[in-house]
Amino acid sequence: MADETPAYILGALTSVGGVTGYVRTGSVPSIAAGLTVGALVREKALLKGYLYRNLVGTDCYFQYILGGYRIAKRQTYGVELALLASVVLAGSSIPRAIKTGKPLPAGLSALAATGLFIYGRAFLAKA
């Protein structure tokens, strides 16, 4: 069974990335994802419309934290949620890191790679 600690750490670090994205660029989706997107808001209010389409790739912090919680409580799909967060984060940050060469996308890419390694191994061990 995977440990929940890396998911909590990755969740905290990606939320810091969201706040940093807002401070540097004024990106409203970054701050919204970094601070306010939660289960009820995301499930009920953001499923429709423009805001959800723009936040779906940036709310990895919440997926990591929920995955870590599910792992800690030995509930189903905890590892899968953390792995999904890593895939989404990698898909959104690695192309930006390659294109811009800036440290923030590069750091998020490293976090994504860490999550892919940890939770990819845990997923394969379960199978």
TrEMBL record:
The chain crosses the membrane at residues 77-98, 104-124. The keyword Transcription does not apply. It is found in: Membrane. Keywords: Membrane, Transmembrane, Transmembrane helix. One of its GO terms (cellular component) is membrane. It comes from the Eukaryota. InterPro entries: TMEM14, TMEM14_sf. Belongs to the TMEM14 family. This is Uncharacterized protein. It comes from Exophiala bonariae.
